Amino acid sequence: MGGNGGSGTSAGDAAHAGDAGSTASAAAAEKRPNELLTSWFVRSGWSKGELARQVNRRARQLGAHHISTDTSRVRRWLDGENPREPIPRILSELFSERFGVAVSVEDLGLRISRPLPSATGVDLPWTGPQTVALLSEFSRSDLMLARRGFLGSSLALSAGPSLIEPMQRWLVPSPQAPQPEPDPDPATRARGRLSKPELDLLETTTVMFRRWDAQCGGGLRRKAVVGQLHEVTDLLQEPQPEAVRRKLFKVAAELAELAGWMSYDVGLQPTAQKYFVLALHAAKEAGDRPLGSYILSSMSRQMIHLGRPDDALELIHLAQYGSRDCASPRTQSMLYAMEARAYANMGQPGKCKRAVRLAEDTFAEADEWDEPDPDWIRFFSEAELHGENSHSFRDLAYVAGRSPAYASLAEPLMRRAVELFEKDDEHQRSYALNLIGMATVHLLRREPEESTVYAQEAIGVAAKVRSERVNTRIRKTVDTAVRDFGDLAEVADLSERLAVELPETAVAV
What pTM value is reported for the model? Predict the structure, then answer.
């Protein structure tokens, strides 16, 4: 695949099987240098030793303590050897972080050995039974592999047409599935029938998990959410009345989206994408298009994070089209805000500003909406609206070459978001992210002293929130401050505090 035409068997391994000399020679003859991996490696500026250290560090974070890479091993990868799991995924994540774009395993000329069809890719059957089976299998595998110390080693991120085209089928009406024959066994019927209080409790538990995530970050309760999701899929495999079945699919969709969001928050990007895709399938079975649009917005946010704003925009437009006649003003406002983020990262200021205005105007209609908003969109408050729109202008500033003009547009909105989040104990992660946003805006305006004030405050909040996303953004902001204003005492003090209070630690799964 790509620049890696080898068999995936190292010469050292082949030399110990059968005729050592002839087998090793055959392996060497079949193996060709991995030109794609070499290209990314050269552009990264890393030495072979540094890449080996990065791989070992990430492997330890994932709990894969059996991995011990050195410079000779890196050289063999560049020469065409295909490393075993989970190294291809680790390399994908490392180069994605290095370049700020999604670098897939295939982009590196690597392949993942023995992939499970149901655990790879996003082009899945849009039918209820398959959705339940895939949710059950993936959540079970996640729990099992997390206990062993690492997970998702057979996953790779999808992007571009391979992601967008399968998601477009969300809008295609599903054929009416034949209803199963009633089970004659009274014990089975009794076991499968849920009471209204039991269904209400499932929904209440999902709300509770969502509150914990907003307050404490994705690292604290991720496995609990995955476990609850697996329990719900067990219920979906039992005979249920149609109304109960739809409500269970809705609960499953919300839990899968939350599991994806928590995975995204702690840096498990392929795992997050898989949960988002499965959540969208469950939302379709529930017949809940507004919820589907929200799931697509989470996928869009992930694509922006991974440097794929074109994909993010496609996902948002799909969400808007699919829910235009049924989503509440608050949900539509959130979608416009995400559309603005995508346009900002694409360097299209006119379209970005238009989407920002639409987000503001639509949000003003939220109080006039006759029906109560679902819990999953209640996070989108006035503070969140200002935070998203200010981040759009901040992103425009970076795309426009660190433009102080766009940074000045971002500053009052970000300041208002910080003021509102400071009073909100339930959304501490959002508070930390907007403090970091204020720090970056002041750096763009070349105001390092003001920037360090907000960064110092962000470090204090981040220490209470288990979010690798928050920690990574703080580190990047501090690195920028050190690079541009490292001679200032305030910046030096900030860097020292970061090293002490937020050292790089294992990813919480």
Answer: 0.75
- More confident: 184 or 305: 305
Amino acid occupying residue 403: S
What the block records as the tokens of 261 is: 């969001």
Say how far apart CA 343 and CA 103 lie, in whole Å.
21
Higher pLDDT among residues 16 and 139, named by residue:
139
- CB neighbour burial string for 273-294, b if at least 16 within 10 angstroms, e if fewer: bbbbbbbbbbbbbbebbbbbbb
Predicted confidence (pLDDT) per residue in 454-470, tens digit = 999 999 999 888 888 99
The answer to whether the beta carbons of residues 260 and 155 sit under 8 Å apart is no
One-letter amino acid at 291 equals L
List, in sequence order, the alpha helices (H) in 100-241: 128-148, 161-168, 186-192, 196-216, 222-236
Integer-rounded Cα Rg, in Å, for the chain is 24
Q: What is the DSSP string of 381-425?
A: -HHHHHHHHHHHHHHHHHHTTS-HHHHHHHHHHHHHHHHHHHT-T
* Encoded amino acid at 224, one letter: A
Token duo for residue 467: 């979010």
Which among 143, 212, 237 is positioned nearest to 379, based on CA atoms?
212
